[in-house]
Amino acid sequence: MGYQDFWQPYRREVEERFPLMVERLEQIGIEETVAVPFRSYFRHTASFLLNLCRLEEKIYAGEWENKDLQDMSTENQVLYKEILPQHYAESYGNPAYATAQMGDVFGKLFGMLYADIRSLIPYAFEGRNFELTIFGELLVEIYNCFEQEALPQEEEIQQIIYWFYHDYGEIFTEISVMAQSSPELDFYIKIIMDSDLSDLRYLYRYGLYISDNEIKVAEYLNQMPEEEIQAMADTYTEGYRIGFEVTGKDLSKKKYVDLRYPVGFERMMRAAVNNFRKMGLEPVVSRVSENSFSGRGNGSRAVESTRPNRQYEYDHRADKAVYLDKALVERRLEVLKTAYESRRKAAALYAGPAVVETFGEEGFEPESCPYACQFSEKQQKLNVYAANQSMQITNTYIKGEERSFTIIAYPIPEIGPNFKEIFAKTVEINTLDYKLYRDMQQKMIDVLDQGEFVHITGKGDNTTDLLVALYPLKDPDKETIFENCVADVNIPVGEVFTSPVLKGTNGRLHVTQVYLNGLKYLDLELDFVDGMIHHYSCKNFDTEQENQAFLKENLLKHHQTLPLGEFAIGTNTAAYKMGIEYQIQEKLPILIAEKTGPHFAVGDTCYSLAEDTPVFNPDGKEIVARENEISRLRKDEPQKAYFNCHTDITIPYDELDQITVLKHDGSHADIIRDGKFVVPGTEMLNQYL
């Protein structure tokens, strides 16, 4: 069964409804049966959706492929023009504008609805007229309510939206589960494997926003020698294979590798697909849509391109608040479990994601929009509950102790005029001699294993003063506290890490500036008491209330508190030097940034859902610090054991004073003193500092 065959049942279901929906949308464009403040909105939204429907028909019929590159580029810009920063002030996608046009009651609802309809753009390119039909019918149903003499009540419109997602959310969930083990959903794989990659028209087949980043990356990779492309792919796929090997997981039992990559990297991905197939793995691509139900703007889209407007995504991050309640959550969890149960055997063959990330976008400082949807406190708790339960259901069918991943990052042209140099330097950093780092890191671990605590202090404006409690070793000859992380799942090389003991972990973590998940944090301070966040603050906004709300949502992920799930010491000073040399420290992704100093993750440990799987360092010692007092609850109270988040926060070397091991006998030994490595045998790391 091929891609079109997979979607045929969905197309047949709306075969008669689709033309009727299109006809009704056309009528909305000329009717005057709705009051003026809303008429413009419905006409505009209907027109946008009509354009997508006509586009889908042309693509499905094969007509679109005849367009030239300039026509495709122009069409892409037209599709996304309205929400670009320079036009956003007068877009219905802007909650402030929607509210100004239609009032507080309906502005928020219609802004959310418009964003969901805009999320259908890629579906038009994938030939998925089922989603186009049902969203068109939703718009028509709401429009009909406004044709009455009196305006409808807010609750009536909210309920229409609620039941739409209650009913169709079942299909969205089923498709997302099927995609993890359905190679016939090969829309993206066909772009990678079948396109003429020298003809950049292929970039527009995704339906995603295409900027200079995607075009210039594709051009750059096209001029690289084949052996360099193959070397990049080998680093990526070997990291994936080694991730299974070092953790003692049997890759031969798996069949599907989940590709996640940025548009423009297709030449590297083609080589990677061939590598994976030689391993016996068939590539699949997750189908995570950008509508409110699936979680718009949460960074989970499998195939990424430059975001047209990050403020737009930030404004719509909580659109699900319009209809989220306990019944909807329970229904979604029930459907998720049923979907996995129906594909139990196939799901067990899912090996995990292989991720290529990019970095180099200009920093983003979100602005608070009072007209955007916001989760109530009750809904925040529901989100936490839903994420936790979803994770446990997924882990029942795709077991954490049997799957793995890999992740690697490359720069995009937006990083600046030195893009090609930075790209080459990044390739160099991604392929550093892991044996050299392995040996230096082991010397640090030998010292750290003698410790009861590690004391970390900042210098200058950095006020960090944190005591981290370490896991007690029962047999130092066979056990170790820290993992010696070389270049496998987490590329590039360069860190040692552990799961701290929570009791006794106290003090303050501070960074003057840091980017986490694409958001900028200023003067971030976290105070820990027995390993749990006791107080948090930042200086992003004018009021403490705004700062607290920002951190609660984006760092704590709606939890009241989070544990310190990881303490690590980054050793990749070469990456640190690259950041300094090209003045791109703030643009480095967490994948690289975490290797450029000590870092601390709030949330789950690195061994989440796989704590009972033995893990060994290259020296043969078992890493025994795989859990903490909270994850230890996983067997008796699993709902309390996990937080479904893990956010790394790095202190750069230039803000670091000392990292000191406090031993059981009262003595101490420095790992880093005045920002420099001092363990004998690690001096080479200081050449870049």
List the domain count as a whole number. Answer: 3
Oligomer: single chain
Q: What is the terminal-to-terminal distance?
A: 56 Å
Mean pLDDT: 94
Structural class assignment: alpha+beta
Strand order of the largest sheet: 13-12-11-7-6-18-19-20
* Rg calculated over all Cα atoms: 26 Å
How is the topology of this model organized?
Blueprint: H1 3-13, H2 17-28, H3 36-61, H4 69-81, H5 95-118, H6 121-126, H7 129-145, H8 154-179, H9 187-194, H10 212-222, H11 226-246, E1 256-262, H12 266-278, E2 282-284, E3 303-304, H13 310-315, H14 326-342, H15 344-347, E4 350-359, H16 377-397, E5 406-411, H17 419-430, H18 434-448, E6 451-458, E7 465-469, E8 479-480, E9 483-485, E10 495-498, E11 501-516, E12 519-529, E13 532-537, H19 544-554, E14 564-570, H20 573-581, H21 590-593, E15 598-603, E16 622-623, H22 638-641, E17 646-650, E18 656-663, E19 668-673, E20 676-677
Parallel strand pairs: 1-2, 1-3, 1-4, 4-5, 8-16
Antiparallel strand pairs: 6-7, 6-18, 7-11, 9-10, 10-14, 11-12, 12-13, 14-15, 15-17, 18-19, 19-20
Helix pairs in contact: 2-3, 2-7, 3-5, 3-7, 5-8, 7-8, 8-14, 11-12, 14-16
